[in-house]
Design a protein that fits this description.
It is a single chain. Helices cover 43% and strands 15% of the residues. By secondary structure, it is of the alpha+beta class. It has four domains: 192 residues, Ribonuclease H-like superfamily/Ribonuclease H (Nucleotidyltransferase, domain 5); 82 residues, 3-Layer(aba) Sandwich (GIY-YIG endonuclease), CATH 3.40.1440.10; 117 residues, no CATH class; 84 residues, no CATH class. The strands form four sheets. The protein has a five-stranded mixed beta sheet with strand order 3-2-1-4-5, sandwiched between helices. Strand 4, helix 3 and strand 5 form a beta-alpha-beta unit. The chain starts with 8 loop residues before the first strand and ends with a strand.
Length: 552
């Protein structure tokens, strides 16, 4: 009998539309052959087959796998996929999967249904083995264990990548079995798995050396978390690198599965100190786009583009115009006033696409006369019989200002009202509960108003961001005698100059007051994120009591 290291294994992985055959169908099937003795896999045998689930792919599954309906045009049927696997399987001694009970729950019924056979090969579970050999790892997911072994797994959950990752984990557990146990053969491994029960409570031991993270400096900057092979897993920013990085390893109970999965792989941390927290935030955004680490979700480039609109609020791709408004993360908010204007100002038939889209936006079925009644009622807010998109958006500005004023009034009233008068009995509180009401034209008008308020907020935010494309920002750092002033100069959304100023130089007015060039608009999402982050940092500095001056 060959040893575990020399067994020919069929590494297998599948993706499905649900967590079990009861709730999902087979979506993708992958496998390859190899052994631990020959570096794990034979790449020439790698197979990855898309399988038609014969049902829509849930949005969540499409998001994590990257598989959409269009990709299934040439997909195989489950019977064809199982038959191809059956033709390859006799070359193996054993099947190996991570969390094998998941693969087996789909594979065994399909094997019986389409081949009329019972599966003749045992299925080994690398998760089950790792659970006994390295129980102190914070996470035992495939990405976590493979990354801990130095094999990085792609962000998308695809069978081909998971098959190769399973082979890497198998190679590592074979090494550990030889080092730490007397298990050498398949039968010995099966007996050992029955006897060696995993501990219900296990301490978490992070691979990252404690001394290395305690030596980090107490200053602003970014940190790059890397696995054993040097691959960057995550990039973050910090006002204090030492405090922020060590917080990952102190708050153990509050970590979600993804964070534990990442920390299982972190073997080293690379830092880049910055002069201030503002610059750390800007650098983080740029580095995430440059390196695209697998555990960063926000600020990735993807296919995002910043949007602009012209003076008529129409989306514009001509960035050479002198008068544009934006940037916006998407053009849809500015399209809404046009949809409303078009639907109001024409005798729109109920099957018109614009009318139908607006009805859908208002959560109303296409063709329902209630939407038309709501638009007629909404028209009463205008003196003009046919208001244009900008006039409709102006109403959103007015409502937005009214909401701010009402919110301020309520806050002042709450601050001066005695606590006992604010207490309601259960009956009084129940009377204020807004029960579900039938849809009316008045309710649809209220929805239109809320939509316009949202569009107005997006408009105002775009104007603020636009001003930061070319600006000079100066703010105070420190207090008292230690106070200094930091100054950044941006042109076209790019930081072109940064410097420290003494308090004497600042108060003497010795700041760079050169005129800025006419702005060159850019739909590059890196520029959009940079000015958006700068706006957020300006708000943070002012909330912390810093003096901030922005020159446009």
């Amino acid at each position: 009998m060959p040893t575990l290291r020399h067994m020919t294994c069929l590494f297998i992985d599948l993706q499905a539309t649900g967590a079990s055959p009861t709730h999902g169908r087979l979506l993708e099937l992958g496998w390859c052959f190899g052994s631990a003795a020959n570096d794990g896999t034979d790449a020439a045998t790698l197979r990855s087959l898309l399988v038609d689930p014969q049902q829509p792919i849930p949005r969540q599954i499409s998001r994590v796998t990257g598989i959409d309906q269009e990709m299934l045009a040439q997909a195989l049927t489950p019977a064809e996929a199982i038959q191809q696997l059956h033709r390859d399987a006799p070359s193996a001694t054993v099947m190996v999967a991570h969390v094998a009970r998941y693969e087996a729950s789909f594979l065994l019924p399909l094997w019986r249904e389409h081949l009329g056979l019972e599966l003749a090969w045992p299925i080994l579970c690398t998760h089950q083995i790792a659970q006994r050999l390295i129980p102190t790892l914070p996470s035992l997911s495939l990405r976590a264990v493979a990354g801990h072994c130095g094999y990085g797994v792609d962000r998308e959950r695809r069978s081909a990548g998971h098959v190769l990752a399973t082979a890497a984990v198998w190679r590592r557990v074979c090494e550990l079995l030889e080092q730490d146990t007397t298990v050498r053969t398949l039968s010995e491994l099966q007996d050992w798995l029955k006897q060696a029960k995993p501990s219900a409570k296990r301490p978490r031991i992070y691979p990252m050396a404690r001394d290395a993270r305690l030596r980090l400096p107490d200053q602003p900057g970014i940190y790059r978390m890397c696995d054993a092979s040097g691959r960057i897993l995550y990039i973050g920013k910090a006002l204090s690198l030492k405090s922020r990085v060590n917080s990952y390893f102190r708050h153990r109970r509050g970590h979600g599965a993804d964070k534990l999965e990442m920390l299982t792989q972190v073997a080293s941390i690379d830092i880049e100190a910055t002069a201030t927290g503002v610059e750390a935030a800007l650098l983080e955004s740029d580095e995430i786009k440059r390196l695209d680490p697998p555990y960063n979700i926000a600020l990735r480039r993807l296919d995002r583009r910043a949007a602009f609109v012209d003076q008529q609020l129409r989306p514009s791709s001509d960035l050479g115009q002198t008068k544009l408004f934006g940037p916006y993360p998407r053009p849809e908010p500015m399209i809404i006033p046009h949809m409303i204007a078009d639907a109001m100002n024409t005798s729109t038939p109920t099957d018109d696409p614009v009318f139908g889209k607006l009805a859908e936006l208002l959560r109303e079925s296409e063709g329902d006369c209630l939407t038309r009644a709501a638009l007629d009622l909404f028209r009463q807010a205008f003196d003009e019989k046919e208001p244009n998109a900008r006039q409709i958006l102006a109403l959103g500005f007015w409502n937005q200002r009214r909401e701010v004023a009402e919110s301020l009034a309520e806050s002042l009233l709450a601050a001066t009202t005695e606590s006992e008068t604010a207490t309601e009995t259960e009956t009084e509180a129940d009377a204020d509960i807004d029960t579900e009401q039938p849809l009316t034209a008045e309710l649809l008008v209220a929805r239109i108003q809320r939509t316009l308020v949202s569009a107005a907020r997006d408009w105002l935010r775009g104007r603020r961001l636009q001003a930061l494309f070319n600006c000079q920002i100066t703010w105070s750092e420190g207090k008292g005698a230690d106070m200094r002033w930091r100054q950044l100069t941006l042109e076209h959304g790019l930081v072109i100059d940064r410097r420290w100023l003494t308090s004497a130089a600042y108060y003497a007015g010795k700041v760079d007051s050169r005129s800025h060039p006419m702005c060159q608009w850019s739909s590059d999402i890196a520029v959009y994120d940079r000015v958006r982050i700068l706006l957020t940092e300006i708000k943070r500095l002012r909330a912390e009591g810093a003096t901030v001056e922005v020159r446009y």
